[in-house]
Design goal:
Elements (H helix, E strand, L loop, with lengths): L2 H15 L3 H14 L3 E2 L13 E6 L3 E6 L4 H4 L1 E7 L4 E12 L2 E9 L12 E10 L7 E13 L27 E4 L7 H9 L6 E10 L4 E3 L5 E4 L2 H15 L7 E7 L16 H12 L4 H9 L2 E5 L2 E2 L22 E4 L9 H13 L5 E4 L11 H8 L2 E6 L1 E3 L6 E4 L2 H13 L3
Parallel strand pairs: 1-2, 4-13, 4-14, 14-18, 15-19, 16-17
Antiparallel strand pairs: 2-3, 3-13, 5-6, 6-9, 7-8, 7-10, 11-12, 12-20, 16-18, 19-20
Helix pairs in contact: 1-10, 2-5, 5-10
């Protein structure tokens, strides 16, 4: 198999093993450790050496990595950023109740998800549980959980009962989107005990959790020549994987690089793990302090830095071509997409565009360009947030996808490889 196919298979394996950001951090950490990275802890003193790869985790759903090479105050930093949360559901604090003999869960929507795709589909559950632990200084510990089997289903309603089921596809998450978990003849709820048994804990010891249902069917290749990828969470796990792959594959770099995979982008990035938090500025501050830089040196480094903000891009849908810019078709399999918006929904500047295009053309990486339809504002990314906070030139990029925010999204088999290659040469200082 060629490198393109090999990378696509690795991407699918990662996505299948990473149903929530908790599991994604676990998988990305394995990649970094395999590349020789050393873990640093936010609350510990750092000792860093030039040329070595380091990483830091935060609250289980954010991971960052960096390597110091050359002289940042002269060359700046090459910074890559993505996120690995996806529009989905979260299981509520009171997880379930029994109605008509069925134990059904209560869900809360997370991000701008498309609801109808979640009906009649086998679902699993994953996330993190906090349990009492008398041996821990905090009195509790975190346990990641991933139940790798079909466990839930949200049954839809037949058109014989709800005549306008197709014409008025509006649903109440509170009342209609309640996954069946178990039959309950005695009226007792058993979901919390089931989770406790899965992690080997007593039900009474569970203090809190962040649990999410997810599509139990793994991602796969589709198409006559397997030229497409159908998978949950392509947006934006594919970019987080490409980002960390590029960092791991750029050992011979002669320029300093930083990569951050954030959480909570889909709900505005406003948390200790989202792009509005202090992680990137903290990394820059601590690196510069260890290098003996003055405040002026740090700002010189930032002025010479450039950011690649990676979030999936909209491919042109043949059934809805007029809803996108008709002069810029974006195709699955066509390579990374440069995203430009004069409203700064995307942070790409003219200088950033020139940098991206020159790099792709120099390294023979295919690329495409995207503008929104002029009558539509479109979505946003973490690029403008980071660019404004740090005062650095930013480029918004992403791989083409269809059915974005659906429970399953469609991408091109070849695109992942080219994005990972782009990040590799970017971090190498090419």
């Amino acid at each position: 198999m060629n490198n393109v196919r090999d990378y696509a298979e690795k991407l699918l394996t990662y996505i299948n093993n990473a149903p929530t950001p908790f599991q994604s951090v676990d998988e990305l950490e394995k990649m970094l450790v395999s590349a020789g990275a050393t873990e640093l802890h936010e609350n510990a003193e750092w000792n860093i050496e030039r040329g070595r790869l380091y990483y830091m985790k935060k609250a289980g759903t954010q991971i960052s990595a960096f390597r110091i090479c050359g002289e940042p105050k002269e060359q700046g930093f090459r910074i890559g950023a993505a996120h690995h949360d996806t529009p989905a559901f979260r299981i509520k604090t009171v997880p379930s109740s029994v109605e008509s003999g069925y134990e059904c869960l209560f869900l809360e929507g997370y991000g701008g998800l498309i609801l109808h795709g979640w009906f009649d589909r086998p679902l699993s559950v994953a996330g993190r549980v906090y349990v009492k632990d008398s041996e821990s200084p905090e009195g509790f510990r975190a346990v990641n959980v991933n139940i790798k089997k079909p466990l839930l289903v949200i049954p839809g309603i037949a058109p014989h009962i709800k005549k306008d089921v197709n014409e008025n596809a509006k649903y109440s998450i509170q009342n209609e989107m309640r996954p069946f978990f178990a039959s309950s003849a005695d009226g007792k709820e058993t979901f919390t005990k089931y989770i406790a048994d899965e992690i080997g804990a007593d039900q009474a010891d569970i203090l809190s959790y962040e649990l999410a249902p997810y599509d139990a069917e793994p991602g796969c290749f589709v198409g006559a020549n397997e030229e497409f990828i159908s998978t949950p969470r392509l947006d934006d796990c594919a970019m987080a994987h490409a980002l960390i792959t590029g960092m791991c594959d750029s050992n011979d770099s002669d320029i300093s690089s930083i990569a951050v995979a954030y959480d909570h982008e889909e709900i505005g990035s406003g948390s200790d793990r989202g792009a509005r938090c202090n992680t990137l500025t903290q990394l820059v501050d601590r690196i510069c302090e260890k290098l003996g830089y003055s405040a002026e040196d740090k700002y010189r480094a930032l002025a010479a830095s450039i950011l690649f903000s990676a979030d999936m891009a909209h491919a042109t849908h043949p059934a809805y071509k007029n809803m996108q810019d008709p002069e810029l078709e974006v195709k699955l399999g066509g390579g990374p997409v440069l995203k430009i918006s004069q409203s700064q929904n995307y942070s790409t500047s003219a200088r950033g565009s020139a940098f991206f295009r020159a790099l792709c053309e120099k390294e023979n990486i295919p690329y495409q360009m995207f503008n929104n339809n002029s009558d539509s504002r479109g979505g946003g990314t973490i690029g403008p947030i980071i660019s404004a906070n740090c005062g650095i030139c930013s480029v918004d990029i992403g791989n083409p996808t269809l059915a974005m925010h659906s429970i399953r999204e469609l991408g091109g088999t070849d695109d992942g490889y080219y994005m990972a290659k782009l990040f590799e040469v970017f971090f190498l200082g090419k």
